[in-house]
């Protein structure tokens, strides 16, 4: 590609900039290897790092997104390493050491999930595990499960830092948002590329089913709390969204067996007084002297898989209308928050994979430019800054971040529409327009033209402030891009 070739899309522009970097690097082997790596990343699925404090529930997030119990995978010496989950034709686990050596590991699958043979991994110097797993959810996504940190910024930098730095986006997993968590996320936003293309993070509030001691309305309460925290300007400035997630309930719904359903239905058939007494606590439910018509081993298995809240919820659902295993499984998944988590991952990350991978590539080019001598480095850094400043995809990200942080605001329905048209809920044209996916291309075109006309009026409205008019002009540009795409 000529260095002066016309770049029609952000992806084209990044590739063109890489070609310029290759031309500037001359015969430097290290720089050429880095550019080859960055170019290869553009072809790969989005890398999504799952990050959070130790014992925060990261594995339940991974399991929910994959759809099976594949995490965690501790080594034979008991410690965790960075674990990569990618799509593959058959299950396969490969261990990598710091010197680049690879070894395929023996694995087993059971009711408790995927497990490693611990013997070959003791004192082995393994730094990464690569798991190939056949899953539709991994076709456009590589999950990177990182070791838990100690809830401090220093701990975060020590735990899986290279994997996080290489990630295109982050799921930050925590039972509750604390000041230390926001400090960690702030640290991750350091650097010129992160400032120009902000916030590639979603916060997942795990242990949602433990709110209020696992009450029957725990998941609903956790979802309401997530919405309140998302409106907090300090939180909104650090992430694109906050999602409440009950991992045990989600995984139980995805893997509910006929035996599990039969046991739940038997408990639900008992008198309410008996159920209420036995479900007061985990100890009463699992005790050998329980009057429930399910043996103790099976009750303990249910408790392990669903938690006390999940058992209460499943029993209530079975008693009030979920008459089959499929109905109960679907309702558990729906209430767990898994569907919302998947929607957020799809809308914020998978649909924006081009801009997220471009962001990663530009961060790499910026680091490379700082090593190039003299005017070559100055030129490449200037070109990176120019692309970050002018590409509309990055303008959308900056404006969405400013709106979430309250720096730019529109009143009433205008604010909701602006957020949607800028791709805050997803980049598909129907989603941006808040329209039915069944509409024809011509109908979507008409809706887009109407929206563009409204926002052109906002952009020229003298009653609005300068920041609002500039934001309105950016919304107009998003509508123009949709019209071009719908007309092609």
TrEMBL record:
<dbReference type="InterPro" id="IPR027417">
    <property type="entry name" value="P-loop_NTPase"/>
</dbReference>
<protein>
    <submittedName>
        <fullName>GTP-binding protein</fullName>
    </submittedName>
</protein>
